[in-house]
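The protein record minuted underneath.
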Amino acid sequence: MRGNTRIESETVISYLTIQRGRSYSASDVDESLKALFATGLFEDVRISSEGGSLVVTVKENPIIGRVSFEGNRRVSDDQLKVAVRTTERSMLTRAKVQSDVQNILEAYRRTGRYRASVEPKIIDRGNNRVDLVFEITEGEKTGVERITFIGNSNFSDRRLRDVIRTRESGLLSWLRSTDTYDPDRLSADQELLRQFYYQNGYADFRIVSVSADLDREQNVFFVTFTVEEGDKYEIGNVEVQSSLSSVDPEALKSEVRTKTGDTYNARRVEQTLEDITLKVSEEGYAFAEVRPRALRNYETKTIDLVYNVEEGPRAYVERINIRGNDRTREYVIRREFDLAEGDAFNRVLLDKAERRLRNLGFFKEVRITSERGSSPDRVIINVDVEEQATGELSFGIGYSTSEGIIGDVSLSEKNFLGRGQFVRIGVGGGKSSQNYEFQFREPFFMGRRIALDLEAYRRVSDKNDFRSYKEDVTGGGFGFTLPLREDELSLKLFYNIYETKISDPKKLATGLSTCSRNRDLSPAICDSLGSYLTSLAGYALVYNTLDNNRNPKDGLYAKFQQEFAGIGGDTQFMRTTAEGRVYQELYPDAGIVGNITLKGGHIQALGSKRLRISDQFMMGGDMVRGFENGGIGPRDRKTGDAIGGRFYIAGTLEATFPFPVVPEEFGLSGAVFADAGSLWDADSKLIKAVGANGVTSNSFDLRASVGAGIRWESPFGPLRADFAWPVMKQRGDQTQIFRLSGGTRF
């Protein structure tokens, strides 16, 4: 035995297939060589015969002293160390190094860099020790040049590109990473497409194939989805059947969310399964299963749905294993389950928990699987999660024709200390306003699915073109949100207390009140000067079925809210507001979305207390475009000051559409709209302060405008510019033809 310094001779001999005292052939030598190389211990092995002896000469693989990476900027050393198998103080093998090169390249492909190259360098340190250095050339990002859909006739390519997460490369590529090819993201995109079609009535939809072709010369991918849409179905007859003698199917019909005549929606079917399962479970049938049966009628393009309630197999949850949550507390994940260890196993409730966990936004990936437990009637549930960043330092910038340049900065965390709590601190403002706020949300108060909200704020509004006084509001409050019907209907109970200070800016500057001259400020404003405390409690009912809260294309949003002030403090009133918004794709293939919005409100003083200007409603361009802020409604005839009103109503008809000749990458779209509304009936004591003949537009007088606008999904958030022409206005109204607003966090 020659050449071995760290490895014992007997260890080397043990790997040989040639035995002492036995004859051997060339094939035996070959097998021994293969066995020794397969150990990974040797860089070179030679077997020769000298006289009557067999001599094995080896060259041991060197020991690695250090593993390092050079040239990497896009992928950190820590990420690469996880990717490679070679470690310090291990033996260097060429096979392992080549495998690590491929692992590094794969890590770069995950970031969209298919031109990356890796060259391993071995630096000899003597005494059979080496350093291993991976020299990396990262290359340019490999973008997605084009996303094409084949087989789609009911929805345009542009509409379907809105559904998936992968984006085409363009001018804004430097701001995002979703325009690179990622196999995992492409798999998720396929599921998003299925959900979109299934929720829009296309029950037979299927994805035939997905291809991603790399053009190495241009360093871009061309992604193609080939689909079969099938027919669009409506829901026909809906029945609930039960094989459980004591379960009345009629009593379960109130849990059904799929109605005859509605467009078929797979999400509604899932929600119905969940609701019926929970209802039956509450009645004592822990092992009941609800199975949907869909009967297609190809002639009428309808689907009859039958929900069968039957006794399921008696299986129990033995254990729930949660893995991958390095930061998130385990109880935050467990509380999203409607079952625990020892409960009856139910696949529907498991799917519901997986959907809830995905919706939290804490995890990049969630996967729930089950396996057989210690006995046939025991099931082990495995929950695997991959966490993602949940903190955000946000900067906002925008421009408003009323405030000039506006901006904000905020620090938020939606998984605070891994407890699932939301915390936000923010400051912002413009030329004549400053805002400071703190928000905190505990989504599971006292271990129940009730959200606790806490807030504190200060808002300072100085005198400007449409307000001749300074207003300073400081306060805070808390509220509890109860889900009445998950994903759709909720009830919020809240309490708020705040101090309002209305002051004369000229008096602050000169010490002399303009109220004494009685002409620079409206008597109604002078009557409201000073500080007063408002203590109020209220409730809000919210119904929300929007497909996307930020950029909805379908669904309904409705809110009804009432507030009662007078729990102490200096004011007593009841304020009622309501809002409803309906969105629908008028021409899905063309991307045209229609919107109808209705708003209204009323405030009534209670007892002997009066309403001040800051209590009443104000109306302007935020509700009826074409008018300035505070430009509609009762105002002092002489000074022109808006004094507000006790009633308001407003409505909007709007259609948005993509510009057909502008590249989709620019994010530009147009809108045409018609607004109408009115604000009237100021508080009688404010009218008295001004004088009945000194107030204009105190009755219900409708204002209306028509116009067109441009929407831009800019790198700084959504911006909008509207041109509106008042077609109905009243004397004293202040108009504003052009309005620019926007700005969001980035």
